Amino acid sequence: MTHPAYVQGTLDSLLSADGSVDPAALSLADTTFVVLDLETTGGAPDGGGITEIGAVKVRAGERLGEFATLVNPGEPLPPFITVLTGITEAMLRPAPPIETVLPALLEFLRGAVLVAHNAPYDVGFLKAACARHGYPWPGPRVLDTAALARRALTRDEVPNRKLGTLAHFFRSPVQPNHRALDDAKATVDVLHGLIERLGSFKVHTLGDAIEFAKAVTPAQRRQRHLADGLPHVPGVYIFRAADERPLYVGTSKDVATRVRSYFTAGEKRARISEMLTAAVRVEAVECAHSLEAEVRELRLIAAHAPPYNRRSKFPERVVWLKLTAEAFPRLSVVRRLAEDGATYLGPFSSRRTAELAAAGVYDAVPLRQCNHKLSLRSKTPACALAELGRCPAPCEHEITPEEYDVRAALPFRTATSGDPGPVIAAILARLDALADKQRYEEAAVVRSRLIALLRALIRMQRLDALTRLPEVVAARRDDKGGWEIVVVRHGRLAAAATSPPREHPRPTLDAAKLTAETVLPGAGPVPAATAEETERILAWLERPDTRLVETSGDWVSPVRGAARFSALLTRAEAAASGQDSSVRLSVTDRLDDARSLRL
């Protein structure tokens, strides 16, 4: 018989998946609690080891029931446990095993909040027992009296948070004695004493108590009201300062739930804590579906550059590699695209990445690397690269413009818009030559250039395939049975809508097209939007459940394009990240690369 796998979780993992608390949680006075204590053999929670269970069900200070039993742990009882608890092996021998006790205990827990002192320990043993014996863990809300005491009581009041110390402090008539039922009864009195204290902290509901027990900062607790009244819809949320300046922009499929998570212990980022202190309100922008929310988030971040957002703030800072339009073209890093007949590659997120890709091109083709404007009439002294055979010396007219174009410029132009095979083959050959000579550090540098170049080529051709289309209309089913609809024009989200369930989506789709933004074509692979926006749209369109409804042309990529080198890029990236320590690709990989170059 195989048992379900068990992994002990933290107290946070016993709450809901996103760490949020139900806003409709009952007040503490109306909540039913089951206060539980276990005695064990002292080992790790492996599905056994429980020797005694004691539980008391209470509500509004009234005891509703008790549950107590010895449990046969199925293993020898350590002598020190007998000394500590007074429980002997003779007492446990006739007791029922845990698999017999669990059904009654789980029924006793049904519909109640589980309370324990150092709750992760007790809950860990119960979850392990359920996993081992095939019982589903009901996942009750959990309150830890030790965690509550750490937050509600000062060191001046109690020297520690042990159950005995707290029971004495709250004048419990039952003192803990390491027997399960008595310890559970003492924990009941501690719980009631703590609930009285919680009122001074403005903690009145179960949800408040659960959050209070966790390490929530005073700023989070003070600003928690900012999440009130937000809608449970997909959209964008904006934390604003007193002067209405956006501080932080985010997106979620459920705005209300996501914003509430900023005020829980799960949020530990220092910059977010600082942001919460400065925020005075949260604005929600409702969206048709998650894709529209993602796109609106990108546009708002780009427009306002909120100080507490780190990503996507300055899309205008991208750069391009430009093959200049002159007699002897050269590569130049530029910030703008122009309709000047030049060939461009990009966009790159930084100048360093663009220069790394350019170095990869120089490894493959004899483009000149100088910045001089060369004349067809007069000569210019050659640099050291000509002497090393790395440049055909167009400056000294050692090569004609026509021959230079064929040998140096044409392979780059072809690589950007069609087949990069010759360029990639030349870089791989250089990589092999360096590896053969055991010049592994230099080979690793060439590999990094190959990665930068391949990333840019694959990305640009993928973007260009979509952005050249005047219009694409697509739809996918949502969770409620309706349809999420998008209208994309030249790679920009022009309209978004959601059709109601059980209704034909065509009227909604037609209305979206009629009201969609007018998008004009432009230069380059991202003429109407940022590369990040178009890539988000591409990811949505390429999902298996997305249906293309209408396109204004053929959505195609070059047959011999850069995408066929995706596997090579993945292997090179794995090698560079340390997952593969070899510089040279394996024999099988090399054969695959050679085969792909011939396709």
From TrEMBL:
Domain of life: Bacteria
Pfam families: GIY-YIG, RNase_T
Protein's name in the database: DNA polymerase-3 subunit epsilon
PANTHER family, sorted: UVRABC SYSTEM PROTEIN C, UVRC/OXIDOREDUCTASE
Gene Ontology CC terms: excinuclease repair complex
Domain GIY-YIG, chain residue ranges per copy: 232-310
GO molecular function: DNA binding; DNA-directed DNA polymerase activity; exonuclease activity
Keywords, alphabetical: Exonuclease, Hydrolase, Nuclease
Organism: Actinoplanes philippinensis
